[in-house]
Amino acid sequence: LQKWVDAGSPAGSKTDAPAAVKWPASRVLANATVLTAMPQPFKLPARATIAYQNIVLPASFTVDTWASAIEIRPSDRSVVHHAVLYVREPGSKWLEKIPPTADILAVYTPGAPVMTCPEGMAKKIPAGSDLVLQMHYTAKATDAKDQTEVAMVTSSARPQYRLLTLQMANYDLLIPPGDRQRRVVIAGTLPQDALLVSMFPHMHLRGSGFEYQILGGPGGRVENLLKVNNYNFYWQLSYQLKQPRPLPAGTRLLFAGYFDNSANNPRNPDPGAEVRWGEQS
Fold first, then answer.
1. Looking at per-residue confidence, does 150 or 94 come out higher?
2. In this structure, is the dihedral angle defined by the CA atoms of residues 270, 209, 49 and 142, taken in order, positive or negative?
C-alpha cells in the first residue's frame, strides 16, 4: 500500500473496473401539466456560507389542485444539497418570521427519484396557495448559479386519499464534543387512522444512523419499521413501502437519530465542538 501511495496512487486497469453507474436523468416527467421555475438565477459566490433561500414560485391555483407526481430540477445539481417544495396556503404567515408549518409537496436530494404518489393518492394544493421552494445551497471553490424548476402532474379530480408529510424534529438536541454514538429521540401520537407510505430521515454532517419505531403494537410491544445504518449526508434516500402500512389512531411514533461527533467521522468539521440544533450545516 505504501509503495502504491508513494507512486502517486496510480489507477488500476480499466478492464478490471466495474461498469459505470449512470446518474439519474435531471428531467424525468414528460407529461407534466404544471411547469414553474425560480424567477431568476441564484448566484453562489465561491466558498460562501449561504443561508436557506425561501423562494416563492410563480404559479396560479384558482381551484383546489391535486398533484400526483412532482419533480424538482436544479439547473446545477453540484451546489444543491437539498430542496423542499412547500405549499403555502392562503392566510399563512410563513416567511414573516414564522417557521414553516405547511405541507411538503416534494423533496429533492442527490440521486432521489421523482416524487410519485401511490395509486389513488395525491398531494393537495388548495385554491389560492403559493408554492415556496426552500433551497439549501453549498458553495464550491468557484462561483456558480442555479435556477431550479419544478414540474408537476396535476388534476382537479379528488383522489381516494390525500397524501400528507408529517415532520418531526428535536430542536433541543445537544451532542457533546467527541461523542461517537449520541442518540436523539422525538416522539408523537397519531391523532387519527393513517396509512404509512414512506419514511425519509434527514440529518447533516454528524448524522450516522436513524431508526423508526412504533409503540403500542399487539401486546404493547415496540416494532421496528426502519433502521438506517451508515447514514450519509451526501446520499439521502426516501424509503418507500411496497404496500402502505395501516397505523390506527393513537399509535405512538418514536424516531431516533444517531450522531457521531468524534474524529472518527470523516465528515465532522470540528470534533471539539458542542453541537446544538441548526437549520443547516
1. 150
2. positive
